[in-house]
Write a structure and sequence with these properties.
The chain is an alpha/beta fold. The chain has 14 helices and 12 strands. β4, α1 (54-74) and β5 (80-87) form a beta-alpha-beta unit. Bound molecules: nicotinamide-adenine-dinucleotide. Residues 149-150, 153, 182-188, 205-208, 211, 228, 242-244, 264-266, 292, 295 line the site of nicotinamide-adenine-dinucleotide.
């Protein structure tokens, strides 16, 4: 089924199309996964990563592309879900030729898939890829792109958190609440500023001494704690995971003192079923892929010719979407993570179906 041997079975996962791309001279081995184009062309980033095996690369692209379909559906975009992986160590094999070869494969899909940055690919890489394809977003401002997506990601997370605050405490503000931010990276920094502006008290941690120093000098009112373990066990109202995935696991959830979890990190739920443990403990979890959609909203806007104000308005609507999901969760007696999936599937089915109405 592709130019290099495969060991997984995309047919059983429901993907529309999985494309294996190879350019031996530049060393490119890529897999583009298109989960769904029910709502429009598939959009999702390219992950450049030294997978241990081709099976791992395939499993990741199948998983990530499916996730993007749900994320884009709930971000109210007219875009489906896709993702790509380039298999290899970017430090060793990334080159102009490899990126341009990849760009030609993206172009060959004729607009069924739009790419963007992900782990291991950067704005500068998208500029190179875009020399071969019209379907690359996340480019630099100089090349007509939207630039740093963490600004609107943080804004969207803040909106999701406001909706959660309204649901739990009756008012859409974090004023007077203690919010624990784990990870003061690109998103965590902007989020901290929004929280302080809103009148919240911020407790934070980061493994990187430079990030801690940033907090000390930029926002001396932020309380720093040693590590995430100390943060989750401290007296916080809201926990905002903004570092790596798997933040909500069998170690953290039982000791978590917060009533709300809203953060930027992808894949916060460490395993299926942990959302139920959160719900049983009375902790409101706003699904990560709903509240961190500001970044994808930003790159999607680039397709129309980037307009920051329009993109910000769209990211602001994450407040309404989160509110809708929390209400649906209450109405249907399910955790918000389940309600979000249901809402995304509903939009893909209801709006996707309209393509059956032929226009000519
Ligand atoms: N940047 C975006 O637009 C965007 C969009 C959607 C989702 N996300 C997700 O949000 C998260 C943060 O993204 P980012 O762009 O700010 O990344 P980043 O790399 O700039 O920041 C992550 C920060 O977390 C810190 N960190 C790592 N391990 C830690 C630990 N164990 N405890 C405490 N801190 C730790 C790092 O030192 C770093 O400062 C990631 O999971 C990312 O996938 C980002």
């Amino acid at each position: 089924m592709g130019v290099f041997a495969s060991t997984d079975d995309p047919v059983s996962t429901g993907h529309e199309q999985v494309v294996f791309c190879q350019d031996k001279q530049s060393g490119l081995k890529a897999i583009i996964g298109i989960y769904s184009t029910a709502l429009g062309p598939a959009l999702g980033g390219t992950r450049f990563y030294p997978y241990a095996s081709e099976a791992d690369a395939l499993a990741d692209v199948l998983d990530l592309s499916r996730g993007m379909a749900y994320k884009n559906a709930l971000a109210n975009l007219d875009l489906g879900g896709g993702k790509a992986v380039i298999w290899g160590d970017p430090e060793k094999i990334k080159s102009e030729a490899l990126l341009r070869a990849y760009g030609r494969f993206v172009e060959s899909l004729n607009g069924r898939y739009y790419t963007a940055c992900d782990v291991g690919t950067y704005v500068a890489d998208m500029d190179v890829i875009a020399r071969e394809t019209r379907y690359a977003t996340g480019r630099s401002v100089e090349h007509g792109g939207a630039g740093d997506s963490s600004i609107l990601t943080a804004w969207g997370v803040f909106q999701g958190m406001r909706a959660a605050a309204e649901h739990v405490w009756g008012s859409p503000t974090l004023s007077g609440r203690r919010v624990g931010v784990s990870g003061l990276g690109k998103v965590g920094k902007y989020l901290t500023a929004h929280l302080l502006d809103d009148g919240a008290e911020v407790v934070a941690t980061d493994v990187n001494p430079r990030a801690r120093e940033w907090a000390r000098t930029t926002h001396p009112q932020v309380t720093l704690v040693d590590d995430t373990e100390a943060l989750v066990a401290s007296d916080i109202d809201v926990y905002a995971p903004c570092a790596l995935g798997g933040a909500l696991n069998d170690d953290t959830v039982p000791v978590l003192r917060a009533k709300v979890v809203t953060g930027a990190a992808n894949n916060q739920l460490a395993h299926p079923g942990i959302e139920k443990v959160l719900a049983d403990r009375g902790i409101l979890y706003t699904p990560d892929y709903v509240v961190n959609a500001g970044g994808v909203i930003q790159v999607a806007d680039e397709i129309e010719g980037f307009n920051f104000d329009r993109a910000k308005l769209r990211a602001t609507r994450i407040f309404d979407t989160t509110r809708q999901i929390l209400r649906l969760a209450d109405d249907e007696g399910v955790p918000p993570a389940v309600a979000a999936d249901r809402l995304a599937e509903r939009r893909m089915a209801e709006v996707g179906r309209l393509r059956a109405i032929h226009l000519r």
